[in-house]
Write a structure and sequence with these properties.
The protein contains 16 helices and 18 strands. The chain is α/β, with parallel strands linked by helices. Strand 11, helix 5 and strand 12 form a beta-alpha-beta unit.
Length: 493
């Protein structure tokens, strides 16, 4: 088996780990990555200490079979305790430290694969096209060709889109990360406008504060919804909100969202909790004053009620299974009507950052403006128009790429795959893939992560990517009877 992995981010780390753990005959693995962000992608770069991971260690493992893999790695590093979040009782470390974990995990996997007889190479070039489709021969930007039996797209979700046409304007940052670079160009007294109010916006506010920023910071958000605040972990032993239940539901054909809500109701009732009260709190996400909601959730970090913890878990564990099985009407309803509520629940902010944000809001250094805003660059800065006209010196885009967005540096390759009929976009976006093997229309190609059309519209977290990778690795290493290449040009790897 000759496997080509395009992209070397978190999905690729999980796939290498899964292949190293699998019991399969050794072959050849070639990883292609043209950027300097090897083993981390856009999300996890070396950055200022204020930019931390957004989850406790148990939710950051890159190994599907070991939820404590990252936690055990951290236990060997006493300096991780410096970043203890007292409210969670667990370390929430800078992303730069998580990058070290990803890099070491990738190297350990490659070492193990090589000991088991695999030939593993990393090519620091982008794949720009195909020299042949049957069998697959990949061509890099440098013109070198590589024959492979299977190709896995681990390309991530690309970069933010410039919604206001501000690219090129002095003081505008379409890509905020790494903030270590962005902040060097922001004067401490500058008036900063941040487009968005999600986790990236919270990162920016926390990093500016750590950098002793004195000027006003305004978060521009159409919805005004802030991420929920993570609660202190408690043991969860759901009887109804389980992966097994999700698999059984999905196996029965089309799933109604009402059936999923019924499972949540049954789970909460069995715990003696009031479902209707919990549902009312969820519905109020878009109407409750966001600062009051933030203050209330910070006070509820240690609440004994399990509803929000269970729902956050279910979105991540059951969501990927049930999403493809939901009716199109329900998927549209959730995407268009409840995106920010689901995103807020599935990707909550850690208390450390929530406390910083509340302090900034209370001091009036940070303001949250809701509704639609027009932004124009005027040479001397930026003019914003909503219910009034105001100005800013710096504008930072904190809106993540839309779901299923093709990364800009792989658009040429993706266009080629679509032209050949190797891949096909779904009407709602993303590449159509077979659920179990993640295979595209041409079975030699597979996709991991949010580029797949049946993935949820929220970013897949590391354990979710690791679970997909483990399933694909099982498929790849158990395959037999693959066609042999004939007449392929010799390649130096």
């Amino acid at each position: 088996m000759r496997i080509g992995i395009i992209g070397a981010g978190v999905a690729a780390v999980g796939l290498l780990d899964a292949l190293a753990c699998a019991d399969g005959a050794p072959g050849t693995i070639t990883v292609f990555e043209g950027s300097a962000a090897l083993w981390r992608g856009r999300a996890y770069q070396r950055d200022v200490p204020a930019v931390r991971v957004n989850a406790p260690p148990a939710l950051m493992s890159a190994r599907a079979s070991d939820r404590e893999h990252f936690q055990d790695w951290l236990a060997q590093r006493p300096n991780a305790l410096r970043f203890l979040d007292p409210e969670l009782g667990q370390p929430i470390v800078p992303r730069a430290m998580y990058v070290e974990y990803l890099e070491q995990s990738a190297r350990a996997s490659i070492d193990r694969l090589r000991r088991d007889g695999w030939q593993v190479s990393v090519v620091n070039e982008r794949v720009s096209g195909l020299a042949r489709e049957h069998p697959v021969i990949l061509r890099t930007e440098g013109g070198v060709t590589y024959p492979v039996d299977r190709v896995v797209l681990c390309v991530g979700s690309g970069h933010p889109r410039d919604q206001y046409g501000l690219t090129g304007a002095t003081g505008y940052f379409d890509e905020p990360y790494p903030l270590a670079r962005t902040l060097t160009e922001v004067d401490p007294g500058a008036r900063v406008a941040v487009i968005g109010s999600g986790l990236t916006a919270v990162d920016i506010a926390a990093a500016l504060t750590e950098n002793n920023h004195r000027g006003p910071i305004t978060l521009l958000s159409r919805s005004g919804i802030l991420p929920s605040v993570q609660q202190r972990p408690r043991p969860l032993s759901p009887r109804h909100l389980t992966q097994a239940t999700a698999l059984a539901l999905a196996a029965g054909g089309a799933v109604e969202f009402a059936d999923v809500v019924a499972l949540l109701r049954t789970e909460l009732v069995s715990l003696g909790e009031d479902f209707d009260e919990f549902a009312a709190e969820l519905r109020a996400t878009s109407t409750e004053d966001p600062v009051l909601r933030l203050r209330r959730q910070l006070a509820d970090i240690d609440s004994p009620l399990l509803g929000r913890r269970l729902l956050t878990m279910a979105i991540r564990t059951m969501g990927p299974i049930l999403w493809p099985a939901l009716t199109e009407a329900d998927r549209t309803m959730l995407r268009t009507g409840h995106y920010r509520t689901i995103s807020s629940l599935s990707s909550p902010m850690v208390p450390h950052n929530a406390e910083i944000l509340l302090r900034l809001l209370d001091s009036d250094q940070v303001r949250l403006r809701t509704g639609r805003t027009a932004i124009a660059a005027d040479g001397a800065g930026f003019t914003m128009t909503d219910e009034c006209v105001w100005t800013a010196d710096i504008v930072i885009n904190a809106v993540n790429p839309p779901a299923y967005a093709t990364p800009q540096d792989t658009e040429a390759l993706m266009a080629r795959l679509l032209d050949l009929g190797t891949a096909e976009f779904a009407p709602t976006g993303g590449l159509l893939a077979e659920p179990r093997t993640r295979a595209l229309r041409a079975g030699a190609w597979h996709v991991l992560g949010n580029l797949a059309a049946d993935s949820m519209f929220i970013a897949t977290n590391p354990p979710g990517l690791a679970a997909e990778a483990a399933q694909l690795a099982e498929h790849l290493t158990k395959e037999s009877g693959l066609p042999e290449f004939s007449g392929a040009r010799p390649v130096s790897i």
